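FORM 7B: Structural annotation worksheet

SECTION A. Query
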Amino acid sequence: MRSNTVSGAKTPRRRKAAAPRAEIRTKVTTVHGVELRDDYDWLRAGNWKEVLREPEALPADIRAYLEAENAYSKTLMAPTRSLQRDLVKEMRGRIKEDDASVPQPDGPFLYYSRYRRGGEHPLICRRPRTGQPASAEKNTGNSREQIMLDADALAKGKDFFDLGDTAHSPDHRLLAWSADEAGSELHRIRVRDLASGEDLAECIPDTTGDIVWAADSLSFAYVGVDADHRPSKVFRHRLGDDPAQDTLLHDEADAGMFVDIDETQSGRFLLISISDHETSEIRLVDLSQPDAAPVTIAAREVGRQYDVEHHGDELMILTNADGAEDFKIVAAPVADPSPANWRDLIAHKPGRLILSHVCLKGRLIRLEREDGLPRIVIRDLATGTETSIAFDEEAYGLGLDAGYEFDTATLRFIYASMARPAETFDYDMATGERVLLKRQEVPSGHDPAAYRVRRIFATAKDGAQVPISILHRADTPLDGSAPCLLYGYGSYGSAMSASFRIRPLSLVDRGFVYAIAHVRGGTDKGRRWYLDGKRDKKRNTFTDFIAAAETLADNSFTTRGRIVAEGGSAGGMLMGAVANMAPALFAGIIAEVPFVDVLNTILDDTLPLTPPEWPEWGDPIRDVSAFNNIRSYSPYDNVTAQAYPPILAMGGLTDPRVTYWEPAKWVARLRATMTGGGPILLHTNMEAGHGGSAGRFDSLKETALAYAFAIQAVGEGWPETGST
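SECTION B. Predicted structure
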């Protein structure tokens, strides 16, 4: 039993608690001549699509098992109830309850969102424009404010409610809005008359929730979700028409491609994006023409990606074409934007990854990352001169918010570091003047000087240098005695920003070192960093994370066996893999909505995400080498007879991305196979999906459970259990 050196953990009451044992109902399949035996396939409901819409349709035997797991987790975590309440109180105390976004100007109004004190969901608001910059603190209680949408009122009485998109019409008369009321990411779209405050008769079900208005404010585009839960169709809905008669703008026949919509900053074009993880195709629709048909910019070509912005008679295209691994920006005429007419505007520079771009009148702005740190670069399109916005800290986050308007010299950006709360600035691109509009307020108090932010590097097995961003209190002893929470993701090219997070402070203030491992599979060090962590190189993601944990210990930030690993979704797959590969290194594993049943999922092309996932993981149905590779690391398939650290797996019943049965099956196999260690806990949110509870305070309870688990793992441990 470890001694408790972390404040806040309570000495557990000793009791016997028997873990649930899932019934074995073996299913045998043969793929590429290999026999796959799955003892727990029965936990996947045959009517899972129905369950996404109607959670009460879950078969009784599966519900009984999940509820038994929840009861077991509750029993084992019972000694931390007081701690969990304290954690929720602390985290809530860092949230400004009546917080508001900084208003964004658009024509005659300033648009913003805010929360009422105690509110779980936002109020979508506007007020007349005065021409003067206004901080968010002045929004609340403004006598000229119009609350366009009250999401708290809409959520009342519902087990789950998540507001999706809100889009006001160009003439400012209407607000189209969407919401998910099951956690399954199936959104209904409605339209509100802002003069009367009443919703129109329109109600469009089974959409992604995204909305783009036409210039005449009489119609809008949206994406429909098909019977397999895939976004595949783009429609134009004209106000007053029956949605069943909506105009079909695009119907994607390839189940491996996702469909999305957006609009150019100029407001001129609707962008219909068809893409997977390595190939894209974009079709333009002129929003000024009520019946305009889509025009393809460049037909899909495997491996070529691009994104589009618009300025005057030209399109500005961000692309990896012609070997531009870290992307370049080309210009093309609107009249004929085919690749034959692309000309380089911002040349490719290896190691400098261009993340995104936007056009404001006379200027092209790009967000890029080099040496692991972001910056914003502003290019004057008339002169070609460039200015940049960057900061000197070892690790920080930087983002830009172009707002609603095109004809403006003001660019808004947001800066934060792991110790410094977010700051929102308006930047005058003509003069270079920065105006601080808002500094994130931490009501319970926060002194950045009390913390230290570091960036170190771990040497991976092949010599690659893996960045690690670190936050700890200035008075935390760095002699190896501190526990550590190490977070990782490492898939789909997603980079982990070293920005301010209020929740981990509850661990850091208890003596934890909080660290982020920027492992391969993300784009933290450029596109090559991503490519070296996917498909047949996926193991680099796992070994990078292990190297990061060992490096933290070797540099006395912590000690082996005092590290709690955390990751969610594809990061949960990382958790499952490192639990199999280096169990003794970790005091505990927190796997949130973990993608752990990788082989079975990627072999099943009826699941919503499987065909679009093949470019990321490989196609194990048609490619035996991809099958063997995935089988070699899939966490569920590589559970072995060894001791495992304590593991907390967290799932969501209506999750369409990582289905609830993945963590359930993984936990069942771990318990049946492991030779010692544990305990293994499964907590399934029976009323939510991939993102967990939707309310801003409700979600704190799940974080508190995870953090209490982490504190317990490095402290007194758990009550005696009848079984692992």
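SECTION C. Observations
Confidence is low (pLDDT under 50) at residues 1-15. Residues 420 and 447 are 8 Å apart (CA to CA).

SECTION D. Sign-off
Analyst initials: ____
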